[in-house]
Design a protein that fits this description.
Blueprint (H helix, E strand, L loop, with lengths): L1 E5 L9 H15 L4 E5 L8 H8 L3 E8 L5 E9 L4 E5 L1 H4 L17 H12 L4 E5 L10 H6 L3 E3 L18 E3 L11 E5 L12 H5 L7 H22 L15 H9 L2 E3 L1 H9 L1 H5 L4 E9 L8 H12 L4 E9 L13 E4 L7 H4 L2 H23 L1
Parallel strand pairs: 1-2, 1-11, 5-6, 6-9, 9-10, 11-12, 12-13
Antiparallel strand pairs: 3-4, 4-5, 7-8
Length: about 375
């Protein structure tokens, strides 16, 4: 018997590895002779740094950077020394929660702090980068990040422009000779789960600008500025990228990584599964235990548990996939058509959400539910 465990975090309650180890304890009790392996799981968004760093034996590096409003913020990245890899969530440096609601205006925000994180990781020896770009407060097309990395953006008079989304309109020249030389040795793997182009009605300004504080007039203004910036960048780099699926992610960061740093955009779960090296472990497995805090129809649209379940069944067609979850909405049955054979909410008694999310309670409920699900699986196999 070979059991692979890869459970996404129960946000606000259990980390990916804590959930996985709880399920592993149950699996070893029900199947004492089984080979049981635990892997971290995330989808490239919130929780990815913690899941991959702790699950793959790395360390969290904490540092202060320039926040989206150009004020200092506490930030961090994950360091995986064995592979010289940095794991970064851009939202740790330029995320929407870092901007008070009353101050939201994408013309005023910057990705400069993300560039500072990349510089700090390079100084620690990192040459591979896994960067999740969800949850941004920005619409600067990477202007701030690239400036931090040494690029120069000049106005019509040849003077440097600023580092915010509102400064894009003034850019007339792009000079890349000052980019940090180590960037030539680096590879950027970008976790991107949206397919928006850079500009137009489906672009970053129109679709995501309003949630970042943009009025219709600001959307129109910024879309025009980003379009002009992209045309200049494409001419400078000799490439096309504005129509690339995902170019509009994180206020144009998808475009910036592709056009200036050679970054590869991938769905978050695909990127995470590649980094975990879980594929080989799934070969010949009998059972996959996966899950997340809340299971619903959105889970079936490619979130982490579905991603790992589909990979598991591709590698071991006879494998059964069981999911554990903190709660399941009525539409969660959609996951049964997407690779998960059965799911089990872990609550055993009526309780408040706060009580259910207490770590001790969640661990006990998860372990107990896993044990019962596996006893049923064992009985069905006998």
């Amino acid at each position: 018997m070979k059991i692979i465990i890869a459970i996404d975090s129960f946000k606000g309650s259990l980390s990916s590895m804590a959930a996985g180890e709880a399920a592993a304890r149950a699996a070893r009790e029900v199947f004492p002779a089984a080979e049981v392996r635990v892997f971290p799981l995330a989808d490239g968004g919130e929780g990815t740094v913690d899941a991959l760093t702790h699950g793959l034996g790395g360390e969290i590096v904490r540092l202060g950077v320039t926040g989206p409003l150009q004020k200092p913020v506490d930030s961090r990245f994950g360091l995986l020394p064995a592979t010289h890899t940095a794991v970064i969530e851009m939202a740790d440096a330029a995320g929407l929660p870092l901007v008070p609601a009353a101050e939201r205006d994408p013309r005023r925000t910057t990705t400069y702090g993300l560039g500072e994180l990349i510089l700090a990781a390079m100084e620690r020896g990192c040459r591979e980068f896994i960067i999740g770009i969800g949850g941004s407060a920005t619409n600067d097309c990477g202007l701030g990040m690239l400036t931090a990395l040494g690029a120069k953006f000049l106005n019509a008079e040849g003077a440097p422009v600023g580092i915010t989304g509102g400064d894009l309109a003034a850019v007339r020249q792009i000079r890349l000779d000052g980019l940090h030389p180590t960037l030539r040795e680096c590879r950027f793997h970008i976790a991107c789960d949206v397919t928006n182009p850079l500009c137009g009605p489906n672009g970053c300004s129109a679709v995501y600008g309003p949630q970042k504080g943009a009025t219709p007039a600001i959307v129109e203004e910024m879309d025009a500025a980003i379009k002009a910036f992209a045309l200049l960048a494409e001419k400078e780099r000799g490439i096309s990228g504005a129509e690339l699926p995902g170019a509009g992610a994180a206020g144009g960061l998808g475009f910036a990584f592709h056009a200036f740093l050679g970054g590869e955009l991938k769905p978050g779960i695909t990127l995470v599964l590649d980094v975990m090296n879980i594929k080989d472990a799934l070969k010949g497995a009998d059972l996959l235990l996966t899950g997340e805090g809340r299971m619903d129809a959105q889970t079936a649209m490619g979130k982490a548990p579905i991603g790992v379940a589909r990979l598991a069944k591709a590698e071991s067609p006879a494998l059964k996939a069981i999911a554990l979850c903190g709660c399941a909405l009525p539409d969660a049955e959609a996951v049964n058509q997407s690779g998960i054979d059965a799911y089990f909410p872990i609550l055993h008694l009526p309780m408040t959400v706060t009580e259910a999310m207490e770590e001790e309670t969640a661990l006990r409920n998860l372990e107990q539910t896993t044990k019962q699900a596996l006893r049923l699986y064992r009985a069905a196999c006998e």
